[in-house]
Write a structure and sequence with these properties.
Elements (H helix, E strand, L loop, with lengths): L6 H8 L19 H23 L7 E11 L5 E3 L5 E10 L5 E4 L2 E4 L2 E4 L6 E12 L5 H20 L4 H5 L3 H5 L6 H13 L5
Antiparallel strand pairs: 1-7, 2-6, 3-4, 3-7, 5-6
Length: 202
């Protein structure tokens, strides 16, 4: 999985030195050097920020997925299909299941946004339509990278002030990352577009 941001980008935004996060009464704890901070950010904090972003946007990720096969029911009166994964990059194949359970491909369709429009009404049936398509994002959107970097940077800044707090000592950072003064209203507003327009149905 492609990381939404990097430790280097986070540190640029946070302007926090690695040793400023250490406990005043313990030398080299929790970080022996800058590399230890980088590992902690890359392996623990950034992935947790990514999960918070994914959950807020109602998505599993912001990766590029190819050849997703989805089977749907035809209602006999609708002329378009809305697949569950978005955004749709490309439709590779549209097929209908015949009475003998074989699948027949058709080219009588066009794609508009995340909808696949058939030339006429879709045939009625149970799980008789199969769509194979690519979806997601070719690269991580800049808004997503920005929000991940800002969230972790604000978290670090807060940790400098409250570095003796119990959450750092027990290693549970999810609560602090979700805190309104870390995952702030401006970041939520930036992500709202993805939540509204690109949520994947669950």
């Amino acid at each position: 999985m492609t990381a939404y941001t990097t430790a280097t980008e986070v540190k640029k935004r946070a302007l926090v030195k690695w040793d400023s996060l250490n406990y005043a009464d313990q030398v080299g704890v929790p970080f022996a050097d800058e590399a230890a901070l980088d590992s902690w950010l890359s392996d623990t904090i950034i992935p947790q920020s990514e999960k918070i972003i994914n959950d807020f946007c109602l998505r599993s990720d912001f990766e590029n997925h190819t050849n997703e096969a989805e089977i749907l029911d035809g209602n006999g009166f609708q002329e378009f299909i809305v697949v569950s994964k978005r955004p749709v990059i490309k439709v590779n194949k549209l097929e209908f299941k015949d009475s003998d359970t074989t699948w027949t491909e058709t080219s009588d369709y066009y794609v508009r946004g995340d909808q696949i429009h058939y030339a006429t009404v879709l045939p009625e049936g149970f799980q008789n339509i199969r769509v194979t398509y690519d979806w997601g994002f070719a690269v991580i959107p800049s808004d997503i990278s920005y929000c991940a970097a800002e969230m972790v940077a604000r978290f670090l800044q807060k940790r400098v002030v409250y570095k003796a707090g119990p959450l750092v000592r027990v290693g549970d950072y999810r609560v602090e990352l979700s805190n309104p003064d870390v995952f702030t209203a401006d970041l939520r507003e930036t992500l709202e577009h993805y939540r509204r327009d690109y949520a994947t149905f669950r």
